[in-house]
Every structure is written in structure tokens, then in C-alpha cells.
Write a structure and sequence with these properties.
By secondary structure, the protein is of the alpha/beta class. Helices cover 42% and strands 16% of the residues. α1 links the parallel β1 and β2.
Length: 222
């Protein structure tokens, strides 16, 4: 996982679904190439294969279930997602919460299948617990700030700073990302100044008039 890194969670917005998902991926790839900053798309499962076929952009799944092949209707099987084109996954996003045992299992599955794991957390204590599972990254996102446009890096800088300090003390190899409300270059610079290795964001870019311009602005102060 190259740093600094920008991970864009597509969620299920119409602006980032179907053909729009592919167009957004092209914007992300172009912005990454122009800026030299690593960027990752996190589309819905149905859009992964199309994007992987038409871009060279790194792709993460939005969610992987702790299941093995068999009777698990509606679940996301890791092997299928890897075959579709992912190189990593978000785990335990606040909109797709998981039990700790399942988080541990999916982190293990990612490691065994040699793809990257980014576990989302909501506070310092959860971040510390997750760090012991040795994921590739922890993305701290206070739920009350998600989608508000209020950046955690400026509204609650101590959350980012303390998470970086505590996670690195447990395992210095775990990357720490900053999420919730990140939109502008100032937001990302503030996160990086607090020690973060990158950002996880969504609506601020997806709903921008020009996602590519928004992405270039996001990394303009690095």
C-alpha cells in the first residue's frame, strides 16, 4: 500500500453506480497519474469486473463476508471478488458493521489471499483492538461526521493524532487513514500533518461537479 494514499468509497450513490462508476474510475485513474498520488476505487460488487477490465486502477471491495464456498446466499465471497479484479477490501465500514471475530477472519482471509485489508473503526479503542489483528490499514472515521462535510482532521484532530500514536505503538507496519468529512486539499493536508498515511473519502468527491478536479485539489497541498 503506497502512501500517501487516497481511497474513494463509491457506496451506492447513483453518481458512482453502473456506467457512472466506470466514468468515475477513469477520473480517479487520470488524477492519480497526473498527481503521482496512489488512488484506489471501492465500487459496488456489480461494477468491479467492468472497471478492472477497462482501467488499471487498484480496486477494493466494499465488504467481504467471513464465509467459505457453499450456502451463503447474498454474501460476498473473497475468491469471487478477487477473480473479478480486487486487490483489497474495506472491512467493518460503519454502514456495514461486523463482529470482531468476523473482522479477524476476513483480515486473515485477505492475508492468505495476498490482498490488502483496510479495517474501518469509529474510535481510538476500536482502532487499538483492530491493530492487534495486523491488517494493512486502519481507517478511523467517527460516524457522526461521515457525510457531513466536516473533516475529522480539523473537527477532532485528537482522534487522528491519538489513533496514529496508539496503532503505531502496537504495530508500526499498520497504516492509519483518516476518514469522515474529508473533501479539500486543506482537509487532507491536516490529516497528513497529524501523522495519517492517507484518507478514505466518499461523497465529497463523488458528488462534486468535477470529481477529477476535486481529486486534484484534494492532493494539491501535499
Amino acid at each position: 500500500m503506497d502512501t500517501p494514499i487516497v481511497i474513494l468509497n463509491y457506496k451506492t450513490y447513483l453518481e458512482s453506480s453502473g456506467l457512472n462508476a466506470l466514468e468515475l474510475a477513469h477520473d480517479l485513474e487520470s488524477a492519480s497519474n497526473e498527481s503521482g498520488i496512489a488512488m484506489v476505487a471501492v465500487p459496488q460488487s456489480a461494477d468491479i469486473y467492468r472497471i478492472s477490465e477497462e482501467t488499471s486502477l487498484p480496486l477494493f471491495a466494499q465488504h467481504i463476508d467471513a464465509v467459505s464456498p457453499g450456502g451463503h446466499t447474498g454474501s460476498n465471497l473473497i475468491s469471487t471478488l478477487i477473480e473479478a479484479g480486487i486487490s483489497g477490501s474495506l472491512i467493518n465500514h460503519s454502514e456495514q458493521r461486523m463482529k470482531l471475530a468476523d473482522i479477524a477472519e476476513v483480515v486473515k482471509l485477505c492475508r492468505e489471499n495476498e490482498i490488502e485489508s483496510c479495517v474501518c473503526t469509529n474510535n481510538l479503542e476500536t482502532s487499538k483492538a483492530v491493530a492487534t489483528l495486523t491488517p494493512d490499514a486502519v481507517a478511523v472515521e467517527p460516524p457522526e461526521l461521515i457525510g457531513t462535510g466536516i473533516p475529522v482532521s480539523q473537527a477532532q484532530p485528537e482522534v487522528v493524532e491519538d489513533t496514529v500514536k496508539e496503532v503505531k505503538a502496537i504495530n508500526k507496519n499498520v497504516k492509519v487513514l483518516c476518514g469522515a468529512g474529508i473533501t479539500t486539499g486543506e482537509d487532507m493536508k491536516a490529516a497528513m500533518d497529524l501523522g495519517a498515511d492517507g484518507v478514505l473519502l466518499a461523497s465529497g468527491i463523488i458528488k462534486a461537479e468535477s470529481p477529477k478536479d476535486a481529486l486534484l485539489d484534494l492532493v494539491s497541498k501535499l
